[in-house]
Automatic annotation (TrEMBL):
The keyword Signal applies. Its EC number is 3.5.1.19. Belongs to the isochorismatase family. Residues 25-252 form the Isochorismatase-like domain. One of its GO terms (biological process) is pyridine nucleotide biosynthetic process. Pathway: Cofactor biosynthesis; nicotinate biosynthesis; nicotinate from nicotinamide: step 1/1. Keywords: Hydrolase, Metal-binding, Pyridine nucleotide biosynthesis, Signal. It comes from Owenia fusiformis. The lineage of its organism: Eukaryota, Metazoa, Spiralia, Lophotrochozoa, Annelida. This is nicotinamidase. GO terms for molecular function: metal ion binding; nicotinamidase activity.
Length: 294
């Protein structure tokens, strides 16, 4: 006769490690670079004033974030978004860029660069605001603001380095043709929730938050850690983010939001790992204790 104590041990091992449903969070700081603050090439009004607020979040809550990503606008000198590349156009003009089905930039009456091509078929029209030359690769203008704190779990995501198309979002270029590495990096850390700060509210932060929500992340925009280029554009962007289910909070709400997320994930995990499992274990143990194999 063989007692089934071995089966009891195996059962304990099988139920002792259930998959965790704990929330995994990332702080995403968008384009906090010299080019977007005072004395930069494309200064966002009061852009530098967000840095001390973000630093307070980092000092108080960095242990609550599983990872931190800083995005970096990173343009070649002849980028298509620069007004200097379009004769007859001025900064802040808006033009249409045309692309073929493969995502190649088409030559038109207003676009004739060394990297555009004659297209037999136009598949995509992308609206482009023309900007001053800014955040050019390997210039101090493109460097991060020096007072922004970093940690040993801070990583950099560069965007906008394809000269043929702009990339407001930290996830995709403006045509949606190619994806940056951000989504895959977040997935590698099992991140499901993002807290987003940075510049500018009505452009790169806005596009990043929209894409994050569309990709299935739970998104919090920390509004007082962002500044917009235009007042109305910022109002419209915030309103649209709210309609898309993006949480709009202030820096003073971050700690409580993180705590609520942790409590919620603990409550979700608790019934399976702390109540249901012991009940099943006791019942099955009792049954096994009465079983003997011949």
């Amino acid at each position: 006769k063989v007692h089934v104590k071995l089966l009891q041990v195996l059962f304990i091992l099988s139920v002792s490690t259930f998959p965790s449903t704990a929330t995994k969070t990332a702080l995403l700081n968008v384009d906090i670079q010299n080019c977007f603050v005072t004395n930069g090439t494309l200064p966002v009004p009061d852009g530098e004033t967000i840095v001390p607020i973000i630093n307070i979040i980092l000092q108080g809550q960095q242990d609550k974030f599983d990872v931190i990503f800083n995005t970096q606008d990173w343009h070649p000198y002849d980028h298509i978004s620069f007004a200097s590349q379009h004769l007859g156009h001025d900064v802040y003009d808006v033009i249409d860029l045309k692309y073929n089905p493969h995502g190649d930039l088409c030559s038109t009456s207003t676009v004739n660069t060394s990297y555009s091509t004659k297209c037999s078929v136009v598949a995509h029209n992308v609206s482009q605001t023309l900007w001053p030359d800014h955040c050019v690769i390997n210039t101090t203008d493109a460097d991060f603001v020096s007072t922004l704190l970093t940690t040993d779990k801070t990583f950099i995501i560069q965007k906008g380095y394809n000269r043929k198309i702009d990339s407001y979002s930290a996830f995709y270029d403006n045509g949606g043709f190619t994806q940056t590495e951000l989504h895959n990096r977040l997935k590698s850390f099992d991140i499901d929730t993002l807290f987003i700060t940075g510049l500018a509210t009505d452009f790169c932060l806005y596009w990043t938050a929209k894409d994050a929500k569309r990709l299935g992340y739970n998104v919090y925009v920390v509004l007082d850690t962002s500044r917009g280029i235009t007042f109305q554009g910022t109002i419209d962007a915030v309103a649209d983010m709210r309609t898309k289910g993006i949480h709009i909070i202030n820096s003073t709400d971050v700690a409580s939001a993180l705590e609520d997320l942790n409590q919620s994930s603990y409550a979700t995990t608790l019934p399976s790992n702390h109540i249901l499992v012991p009940m099943v274990l006791v019942a099955f143990w009792t049954m096994l204790d009465s079983i003997v194999f011949e």
